[in-house]
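Subject: Interface between my chains keeps coming out wrong

I've been trying for a while to get a sensible model of this assembly. When I model each chain on its own everything looks fine, but I need the whole thing in one frame so I can look at the contacts. Pasting all components below, labels as-is. Any help appreciated, I'm running out of ideas.
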Amino acid sequence: MTDQVAPVEKKSFFTPFNIFATIVILIGIPLTILRFTKGLGGVTNLDDTNPWGIWIGFDLLTGVALAAGGYVTAAAVEVFGMKKYHAAVRPAILTGFLGYSMVVFALLYDVGRPWRLPYPFFVSQGVTSIMFEVGACVALYLTVLFLEFSPAALEWLGLKKLRSWIVKLTITLTILGVMLSTLHQSSLGAMFLIAPSKLHPLWYSPYLPVFFFVSSIAAGLSMVLFEATVTHKPFHNKMDEDHLAIYDNLAFGFGKAASLVLGGYFAIKVFGIALGNNWHYLGTGYGLWFMVEMFGFVLLPSLLFAIGTRERNAGLIRKAAFITVFGIFLNRINITLICFNWHLPWSERYFPNWMEIGISVFVVTVGLVAYKFIVTRMPIFYEHPDYKEEH
Amino acid sequence: MTISRRRFLEWVTAAGVGSAAASTAKAAHGDFGGYPDSYGVLYDATLCVGCRSCEAACNEVNELPSPDKPFADLSVFDKKRRTDYRSYTVVNRYDPPESKKPVYRKTQCNHCLEPACASACFVGAFKKTPEGAVEYDASVCVGCRYCIIACPFNIPTYEYDEALTPRVMKCTMCLPRVKEGKLPGCVEACPVEALTFGRRKDLIAVAHERIRKYPGRYIDHVYGQHEMGGTSWMYISGVPFTKIDLRTDLGSTPAPEMTSGALALVPMVIGLWPVLLGGIYKITERKEKIALAEKNESVAGAVAAANEAADNKAKAATERFKKDKEKAVEAAVKKTLAEAEKEKEKGKEGE
Amino acid sequence: MTESIHTLQEFMFQTKGIIYLLAIGYLIGFTWFWRFLHKYDRKDQ
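Reply #2:
Try treating it as a single job with all components included. I did that and got this:
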């Protein structure tokens, strides 16, 4: 076959990304020290009435939703047999693995005693807590993702026997991954069921778990497309024929699925309002905000995905994916921060400070650096020549 | 040891109202009934004068850090305060139109019968004790603060400025003192007996009795009898409860019930997803196998057909060759015979 | 056992605890059952 590996280029370290990453890390390290010397109060705007901020709303909830591409893509290819998207599996699994790793990384900052994170499993099991289930499923799923990702690393390291043994587990890991994802994606929503008096009625619903799960599918599909779009040029020289060949077909296939899922999600949200008889809230300020989220970031991308698929317009689909990704972020931020404690006067509400934002950016950047390291060395965008016979 | 007035009140009311108590103290939540003899505290907002003695006593009994302003300083009432890392309880002043005088309300953990914090905590750091107090165990707490999210009364606080050993801070109902037969610090300190300690079911009876005896004085409702499935700390008031920052829209559903539906789905997903996905996978696998077999079949068929055609062609060619040869042989034989005839006739003529 | 359950919280603590343990056992058992069911399929593949 043709040369898959890029010719060795004499590149300067000082690329825009590397400069950005270095600055972020240089800020992140002292912030980390501050966090563990001055406590949460020293680096956040969290208080007794607003105990959760962007580390939970963005790094945890949005992060988990956007990392859903792993289970969605793996299920499509391995369980539903859509082998044509095979080249999209490894990038999706990598995004999922790094995404969940960064979620855990952010949690180390957010909880008061991170070294006690194993306590719910080994010391005292609070089994009545939705969060117990989230924690158990996330921990198990991170293991699954690690195992699903490992063949790429093992191929890079040349550990053939171990690699082929793990590959045999693919379908088991995939099914386990879908089950665990269903559980924790929905339970992240269920966590807010315990606070009906604090979450605005347009966002609070007994169906919160269903809303979170369904939107995670749309999030995963869109994130895979978003990631394919932004990596297409910078890592072009790492991509093999199979990977490049599906660039547009992936958009059409996933775009069609996303259109349907978002459309269905919009519908069940409307049913939710009907169930709670909450129509009158639509006429309020929060109601307007709700409609911005629903019409602008759910219904609109659903239509754009549909038009893009029908007219074979991959560019439109990519725009819709970007809108959807932002919409998922908006939804999770609404539920954790903007529409939470909505009864309280604005003076008692929360807004992140620069240090919280700095650590959030730091966590994401560490993930991006790891991503870049892995895709430039390991067979993610291409098939390793020694293992080509597999497919 | 002198019998405190509050204790005496407790005995008297228990004796006198015992029978009435039996009918009013129904199970506030489902079939579980709670701990039958658990304690509670009744707070009478019409008696409280806002002296903050309860705050001072609580601070002392629990050895909490000193506040910024001394407890005698009543200017703190100018701003609404909430519990924080060094204040398990605070009193706030309200000036509702329904009352000529200012009204005060003491806030602290309500020690719910079905605590949201206990339901939410993923390390089981909160426990409803038989005495009625909701107890916090700092030795397992991870510091996730989900309990603070869950509490509908916004009570638990956190030591945000502790770097390595931050704890959730909240009223303990002075459980150690109660176990020794003593009163909670705030109850003992109150100079106007706005706080009454006793068995919860008796306190409900006391509260309703007070409302019955002085109908113009009280709103006819014991706050905490049913709210969130019932609380151990209850309130009676002369002004609407919303005017003293007690939400009346919380409902009577206990917190654990709010997530029990979602939790019930977990075993369903665990039980069925492997079956469904495994089944779909097998169907997909079978479809692929059939498709592959059909493909192979059609390939084989095409190959066979091609072979057959080639065979036929070869056969036909062989046939033709045979026929041609036969014809040629026939023709040659004919020719030889004809020539032989000609020779014969030539020979005959020659004689 | 029922004597010690006074609250819904305690009830759920017991029932959910048992369910989690059953779930782990089920997943292990399911894996075994799946392999049992497809013992001869794997030969053909």
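Reply #3:
Confirming on my end. The CA atoms of residues 1 and 270 of chain B lie 60 Å apart.
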